[in-house]
Amino acid sequence: MKLLRSFQYQVFLLPILFFYTVFTVYPLIKSFFFSLTNFNGYSKEYDFVGLTNYVKIFKDAAIVSGISYTLLFAISTTILTTLLAIALALVLDRNFYTKNIHRAIFFFPSIPSGLILAYVWGFILSPIGSGVLNTVLHDVFGAGPQPWLSEPMLAKLSTILVAVWAGAGWHAVLYLAFLQGISKDYYEAASIDGANRWQQIRSITLPMLAPAMTISVMLLLTGGLKVFEIPFALTKGGPGFETHTITQVIVLRGISEVQFGLASAMSIVFFLIVLALTYFQVSVMQRREEKML
Amino acid sequence: MRKSSYMLLVVMMAVTLILSACGGNGNNENQAGSANGGGAEADKKVKLSLLSWNNETEMKPVMDGFTAKYPNITIDFQTAPPVKDYISKLQTMLLSNSATDVFIMAAENRNELIDGGYALDLTDQPFMAKMTDASKGMFTREGKTYAFSQAGWVGGIYYNKELFAKVGVTTEPTTWQEFIDLCIKLKDAGIVPLYDNAGDISTIQGALVASLTLSADPEYDNKLFAGETTFAEGWAKPLQLWKEGMIDNKIITSSMIGLTGDQIVNEFAVGNVAMIQGGPWNIPAIEKANPDLQFSMMAIPGIEAGQEYYAGAPNVGFAVNSKSKNQDAAIKFVEYLSTPEGLEQFEKGTGQIITIDGYESKVHPALEKAYKEGLLAGKFYLPMVSWPRHQEALRNQLVVSVQDLLVGKGTTDDVTKALDQKLKEMESK
Fold first, then answer.
1. Where would you tag: which of A113, A160, B273, B347 has the fewest CB atoms within 10 A of its CB?
2. Contact (CB<8Å) A238/B403
3. Each residue's pLDDT tens digit, B245-265
């Protein structure tokens, strides 16, 4: 009875705990187990190979390239989306006649799946002369077709920009929610003291948005590190390994090449990278929140 | 509070351990249970399960025909789209001992299915005699055949007859040099000669390997995987020829990499490009986009006339689950697929080209020549089907290396070196 009383709230967590254990913790432990074997995903006979798979990862050109592109993707989409989303939120927060329609328009790209968005952008960015963007460039500026998805630098840039376009609206709505929670009193007091609009943004809006920024940046960073759909649908990871993401390499090695043990080792390393980066980012930004308030 | 979260963690670990223990037991029981499979009586009600990568509409005629012939059998149909989705679905089913009685075996998963003992040996079944030898090779290991394939496909280069006529060409090129000259002629006339997104092993590369290497040594691929020869030995010359002809003459450029397959077919259908590589599956899209297009399929010429090759392969095969409890019904289903009636229904539903001896498929006029001179004559080659192992790993490596070649990183020697290294790496895992 005493035990039950001390756990009276935790009891309600049991169903969640059960599903979390079955669908997350158990597969994770099993993945770690497979990462130490040469399991190919089919045969039930496999051997323990120790840390061989972990050694292999760092000799794999695809994974090395995958890590660098994924980091570039995650960091640049996080920075660009945050800048754009805050600016957008500030605009959408103002009281104008069509503000609801505008909010809906900017929110729209976050609804369909990344794959669908990327297929649409595939037509827009098509590298041949009849691609939508190339046609516009030709008609307006007389420019020749640009290899948007086939030149290594342009391909990286294109995938990043499409992801920013797709995510900015959703994150703007997140900031908007926080913006609307800021009391008007602060602004009134500030304008009585003679602060202009920019000073108000810098000294009131941005510090008050700090908690939103911690969440938004964490979501963008983890989402960016786990990205698969947009680069895959736009470039299939090409040219060469240039836009291969870590997730794509894991699928490639695990499913196409039936090296399940190696793919499991990759997922474990990847899990640790994401965990470390997210922990670092959240703790730094929370400290910043405290400082700003 | 800290103490209770610690408790929570302990509970979580305990649940995990119990679950993993359960998983282990489950496996053993299932393995024991599967030993006494087979042996259904003729008129006993049987529910036959089937997993296919053709969808239900495509498989309906053949399933209806089968259940009409065997009223005691009903079919529980499941499908997953090719290739990756299908393979991973079947893989999950096999590992959890819930695989269907009949499933399809593809070039991409045949090794794992055969090695894992998942497919029943069909070699001695009478209906297997109807399957062509070209089709058997893909599903045979050490003299035993594990799946029945009744169809095949042939691919080559689709060309736009009107655009050819514009530059004064009315006959198909018969040598590699004529083919390159034709491409340059088209380019000079302001017509895009060919689109290739370098997203897969190109038909042209495959055909050149067949015509230069395999025609001299039909055992090349087997020797390659036995470690007696290398990619550098058999692929360097064809790839060099391909690069000099296609890349150096700027017929295939790096800017084509981002194209999607749909875009390429569409550009061909509306007449923006003279040639594309393709197969029978492109015809509906081409005809839908432009019903008036005058087009046909040609082979990829070799160095000299008469050395031309197509791409092609037997279609996926139907295999019987070795642990199925309905093996009799499953074999009846595969047998039905081999009967004239079954073939007709299968062709009706899927539109695939039948390769069974004594059955002539009606093919699209554009494919007539490819069907007779390529598919039926056995003048086709597809590396992924001919390679006995690691098809996907090698295919991916080739695609990545060729894309690097296109953007100016590396040489053809780097491509063959990377392939040899990948093969070595995969063999030693």
1. A113
2. yes
3. 999 999 999 889 878 888 899
